[in-house]
């Protein structure tokens, strides 16, 4: 078990190093950092001095090591566009994205898992067929179109909900939260739903497929032959076994939530990291792009490590050693 | 107690209703072990499923009555039927590896089963569960009960399965191939347990199996099925000793006997309507072609001190995992033109031997020679080494040993092309067709796909593929264990014929001692990767030297009458 | 051949599934329309001379002011909406298909080799896949686009747009193929027909491509369908975010982005015509994917 965790930890560190390397290569090779930082009037000597100061003449691996070291110490460099420290810019935006992503993920799980279970247990019913068709259409509509439709319906036609921004926010420590005001929640509903729909359909289809697989297994057949009450059979036996593969995929889906948050944030002008990333792409603001990558990969790796721990909690085969 | 009359089960399908069971009647009394025996497709398991009310949809009971005591099993609501399951009828499945919920402890599974049918406190249920486990032969049940299924060995797990079926005191237990996945030693313990439970607790058993040996060993009465119909039924001893129905007679003739060797099984050869090969070549031509290449006859093989280690699964970062020793300094000598029987339980290293010889696994130590020439280990053996052709193999599972996406013609002509035996494509096709004729298949099979053939026919195709390499050493790894007895007899006859005609050397790997006896000139017994005994076959079966070999022979279910 | 297809299980299932039949028909019509757009469409939306501002913002024919010449109306530039969506679908499908093919070749190749050889090679491929997974599709695509902007001089952006977009989408989809191909290869590799081929001394490439590949095509075909749908969606999303294709050679996504500007005004058709067209296309591809999944599920036979 300890070995399993350590192995996963090493894999995670590898992923982080690879992403850091990607980010570093971006910074180093896409465009010339010096010409980005200086104006036309800077002399050649000044440029050369800056180059030396930045350590751009050092050996490549040495530069990468220093870059990684800086990242670890929270020194993320400066934006080409705003000249602000990137760390501050990102830190300002993190709460908005995390709140949006978390609420969306919760929506997708709260609806997706029960719907998946229901459709797996009643595979031929009318309700099931309707749900399946709806979700199929759901995965086929681009996230931004769902956003537009929601804005059009609830924002423009009905005028019930705000269509952009975070609404009322509260400062808690360094964290700007919209979870503590009614206005904040009202602003959060549409974007979170938009972001959650796609994950919801994926979760539902996955739970359904896995559950149907489990329902056909020998141990469910045996439990049926022993007359275990249906409710217990479905939830204690079948659902628990379904969750083992499902949580792995949900962990991987977290990446999808983050990615689509870029789209959602763009549609709803939600001031999160995704919007920042889009702006940085538009202006080729390499340091911000690079750091965004590292931060996203970090969250992804963190969530998947947590999933591994959950895995161990659920599955005794990973927890308890084999014995004769 | 259980009385089934005129049971008919149908499965609706695209081509109209398929009748899986037709007019089957049987009855089981308390304490009786009633065997249901038959080959695949006989409908044995369907009867069991119908009785317990778990027919796979869309199957349905079309006709017949089923009563258990005073309860009409066909007239139950879904809820009543579910209450009946466990409480009065229970079931044991084939594979103990998959029939327990891996996420729940044995204790949880036992207690929930007891509480599902009885209003009883958890601690009382636990006490009963522990008593039951002890009765069934699990030591230190009070602590072992806290364990998860994966912490038990195969045989112990099947005991847990039996405990689960038993814990609600049912009157009838349907055991569907309960020992098929187990080794002989464990199988005999489980069978003893079933027999004891029938006697002491008066439970009626329906024992579904394809193994006549198992039927002979523990059942009181037997029903012989074929194609969903009852062929014959009666007291086991009478039916097996003096079968009345021609099918039962043929079945008994096809069963390999542990106590004697027969030269040929008395079974009808395959009932294929033969179509002449397109080029007019027949089995005789294939035979001539083969003899052209194997004038030298079979090759001898010698293995000396071969040791195979597999890396263990890593569980710690600092200590290197213990390697798993699959073969421990194994030596074996196969005489040219003879059949060497390689026997052992699962995990004994039989299949690893085949892999070492064919070059799929590299031994850590040891030497091998084939026909006097050194046979390099897998890592040093070039792809075009002559042994690649000389050594051929027939596998266990005819359903996976032929590539499902290739036509028979492509499968058969591959060795001819690969080894450069026949440069001309048309000629390759002719020889392939002739070879099909030789192994007893119609030559027009050449344009079909493997899924259009039965298991026995596929095994014939696999043999044909092996022969088309002009081999001098043939490895047969459990070639008949996936086949029905009558088909097994046909395939064994084919192998015997070919061996006699071409003087092939064969390494015949099997866990089934009765089959091995029919085939082998010599015997090597493996246990945990070590050779326990190596002998001439007849000497081995009449007077085994090693204790383990003697035990193995004793425990193998045999027809003694 | 035709008769065999007609009697095959797959076709039998198709005849029993009206949803799959309709989906097949819609997908066929859209693809045919896209392929033959230059012959079907009344105007060439890329050719500024073929339309006129005078015809701008005409509603569909059934609304007041609609003209029979433009059945689904025109956009603000005076482009015929039907021509625009046909050409747009052509571009979207082209990018989607190319991306899918590249992703398939790359992913299946690596997955097969990883599953076949196992060991260190497998570990390396899977770690790369891990990294790719940590950077999801949209992110990868955006990133590659960003790099292209940084590396290439700005006047070249327009020319390499399609290539950059295709590559970006392909790179974000290959992992799916690689993981599936690897998992299936692991299973197939231990089957006896593969062992037989290995024992015979066949070349690893022959074993992989001639023996294993045909046996793992089923699940891969399902992924190909589903990923074609994702590729089209991804292209639309990127174009919507304004980093996909420019307005002078609009894909479906670009058309939707343009239509967004008219969300609040009365010209609803400029937004909803391409949107509904896109949804119909993707829904039908996904329905076909679902259908294929059933066909390849051995339990349903």
Question: Can you put this structure into words, describing what you see?
Answer:
- The complex is a heterotrimer of chains A (324), B (561) and C (301).
- Chain A is built from 13 helices and two strands.
- By secondary structure, chain A is mainly α.
- Chain A has a two-stranded antiparallel ribbon.
- Chain A is globular.
- Chain B has two domains: 2-254, Rossmann fold; 283-310 and 323-555, P-loop containing nucleotide triphosphate hydrolases (Rossmann fold).
- In chain B, 49% of the residues are buried.
- The model of chain B has no long low-confidence stretch (mean pLDDT 90).
- By secondary structure, chain C is mainly α.
- Chain C has twelve helices and no strands.
- Chain C is globular, with a radius of gyration of 22 Å.
- Classes of the chains: A mainly alpha (324), B alpha/beta (561), C mainly alpha (301).
- Chains in contact: A-B, A-C, B-C.
- The interface between A and C is large, with 46 and 44 residues.
Topology:
The complex is a heterotrimer of chains A (324), B (561) and C (301).
Chain A: H1 2-29, H2 33-37, H3 44-54, H4 60-72, H5 86-121, H6 126-140, H7 143-157, E1 170-172, E2 175-177, H8 182-215, H9 218-225, H10 230-268, H11 273-282, H12 286-314, H13 316-319
Antiparallel strand pairs in A: 1-2
Helix pairs in contact in A: 1-12, 5-6, 5-8, 5-10, 5-12, 6-8, 7-8, 7-10, 8-10, 10-11, 10-12, 11-12
Chain B: E1 2-11, E2 18-28, E3 33-38, H1 44-52, E4 60-68, E5 71-72, H2 78-87, E6 89-92, H3 106-117, H4 122-135, H5 141-144, H6 154-166, E7 172-176, H7 184-201, E8 204-209, H8 212-218, E9 221-226, E10 229-235, H9 236-241, H10 246-254, H11 283-293, E11 301-310, E12 324-334, E13 339-343, H12 350-358, E14 365-370, E15 373-374, H13 387-390, E16 391-394, H14 408-418, H15 425-438, H16 455-467, E17 473-477, H17 485-502, E18 505-510, H18 513-519, E19 522-527, E20 530-536, H19 537-542, H20 547-555
Helix pairs in contact in B: 3-4, 6-7, 10-17, 11-15, 14-15, 14-16, 15-16, 16-17
Chain C: H1 2-7, H2 9-16, H3 18-35, H4 37-40, H5 81-117, H6 119-134, H7 137-151, H8 157-189, H9 192-199, H10 204-240, H11 252-260, H12 268-295
Helix pairs in contact in C: 3-5, 3-12, 5-6, 5-8, 5-10, 5-11, 5-12, 6-8, 7-8, 8-10, 9-10, 10-11, 10-12, 11-12
Subcellular location (chain C): Cell membrane
Protein name (chain C): Peptide/nickel transport system permease protein
Main location (chain C): membrane
């Amino acid at each position: 078990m300890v070995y399993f965790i350590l192995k996963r930890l090493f894999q995670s560190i590898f992923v982080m190093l690879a992403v850091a390397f990607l980010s570093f290569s971006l910074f180093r090779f896409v465009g010339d950092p010096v010409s980005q930082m200086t104006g036309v009037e800077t002399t050649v000597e000044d440029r050369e001095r800056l180059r030396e100061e930045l350590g751009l003449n050092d050996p490549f691996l040495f530069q990468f090591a220093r870059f990684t070291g800086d990242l670890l110490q929270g020194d993320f460099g400066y934006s080409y566009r705003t000249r602000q420290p990137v760390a501050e810019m990102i830190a300002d935006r993190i709460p908005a994205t995390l709140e949006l992503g978390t609420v969306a993920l919760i929506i997708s799980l709260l609806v997706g898992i029960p719907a998946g279970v229901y459709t797996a247990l009643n595979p031929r019913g009318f309700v099931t067929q309707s749900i399946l068709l709806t979700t199929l259409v759901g995965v086929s509509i681009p996230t931004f179109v769902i956003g537009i439709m929601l804005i059009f319906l609830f924002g423009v036609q009905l005028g019930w909900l705000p269509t952009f921004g975070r609404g009322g926010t509260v400062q808690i420590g360094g964290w700007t939260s919209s979870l503590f005001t009614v206005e904040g929640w009202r602003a959060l509903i549409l974007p979170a739903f938009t972001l959650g729909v796609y994950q919801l359909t994926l979760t539902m289809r996955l739970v359904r497929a896995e559950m149907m697989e489990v329902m056909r297994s020998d141990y469910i057949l045996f439990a049926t032959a022993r007359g275990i009450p249906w409710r217990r059979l479905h939830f204690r036996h079948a659902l628990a076994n379904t969750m083992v593969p499902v949580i792995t995929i949900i962990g991987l889906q977290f990446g999808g939530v983050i990615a689509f948050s870029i789209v959602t944030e763009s549609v709803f002008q939600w001031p999160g990291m995704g919007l920042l990333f889009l702006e940085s792409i538009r202006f080729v603001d390499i340091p911000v792009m690079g750091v965004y990558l590292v931060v996203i990969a970090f969250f992804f790796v963190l969530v998947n490590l947590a999933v591994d721990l959950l895995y161990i909690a659920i599955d005794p085969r990973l927890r308890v050693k084999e014995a004769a | 107690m259980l009385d089934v009359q005129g049971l008919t089960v149908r499965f609706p399908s695209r081509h109209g209703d398929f009748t899986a069971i037709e007019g089957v009647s049987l009855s089981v009394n308390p304490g009786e072990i009633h065997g249901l025996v038959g080959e695949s497709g006989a409908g044995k398991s369907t009867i069991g499923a119908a009785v317990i009310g778990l027919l796979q949809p869309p199957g349905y009971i079309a006709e017949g009555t089923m009563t258990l005591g005073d309860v009409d099993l066909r007239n139950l609501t879904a809820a009543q039927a579910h209450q009946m399951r466990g409480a009065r009828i229970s079931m044991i499945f084939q594979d103990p590896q998959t029939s327990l919920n891996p996420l729940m402890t044995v204790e949880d599974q036992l207690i929930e089963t007891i509480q599902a049918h009885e209003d009883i406190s958890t601690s009382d249920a636990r006490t009963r569960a522990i008593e039951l486990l002890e009765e069934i032969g699990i030591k230190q049940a009070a602590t072992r009960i806290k364990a998860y299924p994966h912490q038990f060995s195969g045989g112990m797990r099947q005991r847990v399965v039996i405990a689960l079926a038993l814990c609600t005191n049912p009157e009838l237990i349907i055991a569907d191939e309960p020992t098929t996945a187990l080794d002989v030693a464990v199988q005999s313990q489980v069978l003893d347990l079933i027999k004891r439970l029938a006697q002491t607790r008066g439970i009626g058993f329906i024992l579904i199996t394809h193994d006549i040996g198992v039927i002979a060993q523990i059942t009181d009465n037997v029903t012989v099925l074929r194609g969903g119909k009852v062929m014959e039924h009666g007291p086991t001893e009478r039916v097996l000793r003096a079968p009345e129905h021609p099918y039962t007679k043929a079945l008994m003739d096809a069963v390999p006997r542990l106590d004697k060797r027969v030269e040929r099984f008395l079974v009808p050869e395959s009932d294929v309507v033969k179509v002449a090969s397109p080029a007019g070549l027949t089995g005789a031509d294939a035979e001539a072609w083969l003899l052209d290449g194997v004038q030298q006859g079979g090759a001898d093989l010698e293995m000396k001190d071969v040791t195979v280690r597999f890396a263990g699964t890593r569980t710690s970062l600092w200590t290197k995992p213990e390697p798993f020793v699959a073969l421990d300094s194994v030596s074996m000598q196969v005489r040219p033109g003879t059949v060497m029987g390689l026997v052992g339980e699962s995990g004994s290293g039989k299949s690893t031997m085949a892999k070492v010889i064919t070059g799929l696994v590299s031994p850590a130590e040891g030497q091998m020679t084939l026909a006097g020439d050194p046979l390099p280990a897998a890592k040093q053996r070039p792809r075009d080494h002559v042994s690649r052709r000389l050594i051929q193999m027939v596998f266990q599972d005819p359903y996976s040993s032929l590539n499902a996406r290739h036509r028979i013609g492509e499968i058969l002509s591959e060795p001819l092309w690969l080894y450069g035996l026949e440069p001309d494509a048309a000629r390759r096709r002719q020889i392939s067709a002739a070879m099909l004729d030789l192994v007893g298949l119609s030559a027009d099979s050449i344009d079909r796909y493997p899924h259009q053939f039965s298991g026995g026919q596929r095994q014939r195709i696999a043999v044909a593929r092996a022969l088309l390499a002009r081999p001098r050493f043939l490895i047969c790894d459990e070639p008949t264990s996936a086949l029905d007895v009558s088909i097994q007899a046909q395939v064994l006859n084919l192998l015997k014929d070919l061996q006699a005609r071409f003087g092939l050397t064969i390494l015949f790997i099997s866990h089934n001692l009765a089959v091995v006896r029919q085939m082998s000139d010599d015997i090597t017994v493996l246990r945990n990767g070590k050779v326990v005994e190596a002998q001439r076959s007849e000497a081995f079966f009449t007077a085994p030297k090693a204790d383990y070999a003697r035990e193995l022979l004793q425990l193998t279910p045999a027809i003694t009458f | 051949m035709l008769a065999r297809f007609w009697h095959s299980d797959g076709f039998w299932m198709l005849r029993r599934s009206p949803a799959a039949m309709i989906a097949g028909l819609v997908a066929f019509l859209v693809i045919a329309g896209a392929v033959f757009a230059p012959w079907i469409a009344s105007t060439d939306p890329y050719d500024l001379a073929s339309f006129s501002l005078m015809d701008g913002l005409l509603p569909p024919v059934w609304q007041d002011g609609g003209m029979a010449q433009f059945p689904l109306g025109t956009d603000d530039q005076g482009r015929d909406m039907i021509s625009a969506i046909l050409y747009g679908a052509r571009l979207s499908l082209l990018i989607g298909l190319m991306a899918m093919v590249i992703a398939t070749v790359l992913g299946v190749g690596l997955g097969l080799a990883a599953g076949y050889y196992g060991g260190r090679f497998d570990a390396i491929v899977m770690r790369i896949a891990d990294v790719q997974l940590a950077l999801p599709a949209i992110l990868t695509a955006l990133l590659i686009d960003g790099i292209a902007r940084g590396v290439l001089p700005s006047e070249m952006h327009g020319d390499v747009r399609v290539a950059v977009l295709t590559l970006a989408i392909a790179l974000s989809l290959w992992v799916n193929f690689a993981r599936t191909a690897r998992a299936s290869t692991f299973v197939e590799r231990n089957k006896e027909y593969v062992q037989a081929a290995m024992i015979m001394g066949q070349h690893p490439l022959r074993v992989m491509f001639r023996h294993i590949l045909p046996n793992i095509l089923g699940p891969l075909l399902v992924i190909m369908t589903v990923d074609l749908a994702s590729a089209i969606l991804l292209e639309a999303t990127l174009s919507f975010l304004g980093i996909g294709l420019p307005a002078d050679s609009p894909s479906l996504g670009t058309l939707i982005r343009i239509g967004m500007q008219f969300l609040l005004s009365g010209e609803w058709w400029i937004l909803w015509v391409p949107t509904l067209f896109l949804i119909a296309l993707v829904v039908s591809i996904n329905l076909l994917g679902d259908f294929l999944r059933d066909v390849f599920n051995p339990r349903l036979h």
